[in-house]
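anyone seen this seq b4? input:
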Amino acid sequence: MCGIVAQIGSEGDPASQARALQTLAARGPNHAGQWRSEDGRVWLGHRRLAIVDLTPDGNQPLRNAAGTLWLTANGEIYNAPALRAELTRRGHRFLSHSDNEAILHAYAEWGDACVKRLEGMFAFVLWDAEKQRALAARDAIGIKPLFWRRIGSGVAFASEAKAIVPLTLQAPPIDSLALGYVLTTGSVPAPLSIWRGVRKLEPGACLSWSTNEGAREVRYWTPPNALDDQPATQQAWVPLFHQVLQDHLQADTPLAMLLSGGLDSNSVAAGLAELGHPLTAFGVSFPESPRDEAPRAQAAAQALGMPFQRVPLPGVDVPELRNEVWRSLDEPSGYSAHLPMFRLSRVVARSYKVALSGDGGDEVFGGYAWYRDLRLPRRRGTLMRRALETLVKRAESPRATHAAMAQFSRHSALHRHAMRQFPRFLPEEVEALLAPMGQRFDDEAMLAPMARWFSPDLPLRRALQRVDLMTFCSDHVLTKADRASMAFGLEARVPLLDKRVVEWGLTRAVTDDEESRAKGVLRDYLATRLPNLEQDYFKQGFSNRAAVQRDIPAMTQRIADGYWVRNGLWSPIWQRLIRPGMPYHEARLEVLYGLTLWAEHNLRD
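predicted toks r here
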């Protein structure tokens, strides 16, 4: 599936609705469909990427035989065959072979509790004409996006925030708090969006709407909050993993594999090969970099009997690629990893509609470098940092900013975690930068999304994995994969973020060797399947090596001429924040430059 949009509870303008549908990221000959109630107060739109049931029967919006239930959905329901069999025995009559039709009949059978029966990645809006109510839901991990906004007495939904904008009388203003998060954590955390008044439906949540009750959000899933003390044995892991991989092969079109050469994607590739499905693999290549991982990925593919295609990032106009990427994003991001994923998706989508990737292994099995050396410092840095605050807010002394960052990391486990994960700007620097917008921003505000999911009763490693799953993974990793792939009509599937895998991985007991041997369950899995490939290699990730073709003077000038500076929304301090000598000054430049590019394509003076 590709994208959904809906307006419920208030009569909409057909021309505006057509623009909203057109805004959804759908390329090529994808089918666009819509349904409107007789009174015009319910409208569902859909842009289809046909993967299961390629016939017109699978076109959306879908309905039940009586025409009382209507659905627009995005994603894949991996247990649809089992649900179809069960619901057919209960007397339900299916009108298509679409996996998403299982949602309709599951709702008819179990009501809102149907979401607990779904295994897959999904975002959907369902209209119940008899009860005059809508139900919207997003999968447990947040693999598929869903934005919503109150409009008059009704509500609007869309897969992309910018698809909601045409349904409003005027474009909503920028949320400066969300902007602060892009600067300090790299992305906009749910339930916020970059547009004030437009919200993300959170992972593992559903929202119901009716005339009498309005909009009501309910959480139906939370990540595990306790360990079951069972070790991560191969006897337990292999059957689960292979079942999940088999389920993720559900498609009526050929599938591909995104292979980076690391533990996660190698494990997915090895499992697929063992199941008898050696897919064609694609990997990003940085031929000018000594850290190019394409040869390693190709070696893994050859060992597994998979054809492999290198996709070089150099060889394209990188400044233009940057421009194209930020034009396609409905929300700004502080991460350059969008570039190689965008480039990779474009090439894969020329021949395939579905690609499996290894995203999620670091969150589920604790592979990130920032999970190392988790001993807490004995001395907090609050007093020293407060003494440096004036200098930091004025950006007068790079040395003071370096010292303040060091003191920030000493304050708590979450402070240190945030600085390891996205070391760019301190909260007081962001408050100074956004002073013209009147945005207050301190440590508490910056860490609030993480603190919400932090469980102090868990071992620190598992507690941070839980935080990352519901913040960094959902708000950045999955956003990157979804927006880049959907821009070209490619569906990215992430079996290591299947809810069954997440619940299994996050409840494993912490072992003594996790510090030195992270992701042991995947290493053991590969030991007999790729025995000749060194698995202790430290993965570099799908990042933009050295921010290739960075022209610092030109980027700085574009920021100076750009929307934020031109309209006086950023303090002149921005120039000092990115000058040489400041910590991470080139990474800071990338963030401000990306925000400038995004604003050029999405905001008007």
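The chain is about 40% helix and 15% strand. The chain has a mean pLDDT of 92. kinda curious what u guys think
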